[in-house]
């Protein structure tokens, strides 16, 4: 059964009216001030996680796999000989893919196989990081994907940043209220979503060991937080 244009318009108008009523119900009908507080804390990193890859290309899949496995096994052995616990080392399964060549104005053709294995390492001593990088490269690792610095107890720093954000919101609200000759009343609403620490990433792998060590130790992690507060005004 078809609906006439007149009925369609009435239904659409009713939906708009309901939406408007719902919106009005959410409108604050008392004097208030809405403020957002920000807080941040600087933390020195005390742990790191880095990911590396071994990528080998050979004519046969078996040759590529053997070379990738050998490089990873050598790397794992040296890590454990260096004193790193096995639970802090995670090695992924091997990936075997056809190595394709795409000549200009010609059909793609396969040129052997590519074997890829990934290893992720977590350490709690940043002084070890440059040495482990050197060990990785000497073992046959040919790609360093990422070096991410962090802190062992981020919740401790997050609590400090949160406290600073709350103080900031209070000070802003009081200052603005006094500027309009008003006085703050009770808190009516608080909106809060915990933020995440955003560690800086190391950028250069071309430095020597001593330079890399200094760059890691000089890195600072900024942990931020924010809180939105609505105060009633007297």
UniProtKB/TrEMBL annotation:
Transmembrane portions of the chain = none
Q: Which InterPro entries match?
A: 26kDa_periplasmic_antigen, SIMPL/DUF541
Q: Which Gene3D superfamilies match?
A: Protein of unknown function (DUF541), domain 1, Protein of unknown function (DUF541), domain 2
Q: Which domain of life is it from?
A: Bacteria
Its keywords, alphabetically, are: Signal
One biological process term in Gene Ontology: DNA damage response
Q: Where is the signal peptide?
A: 1-24
Q: Which NCBIfam families match?
A: PRK11087.1
Q: What is the name of this protein?
A: Oxidative stress defense protein
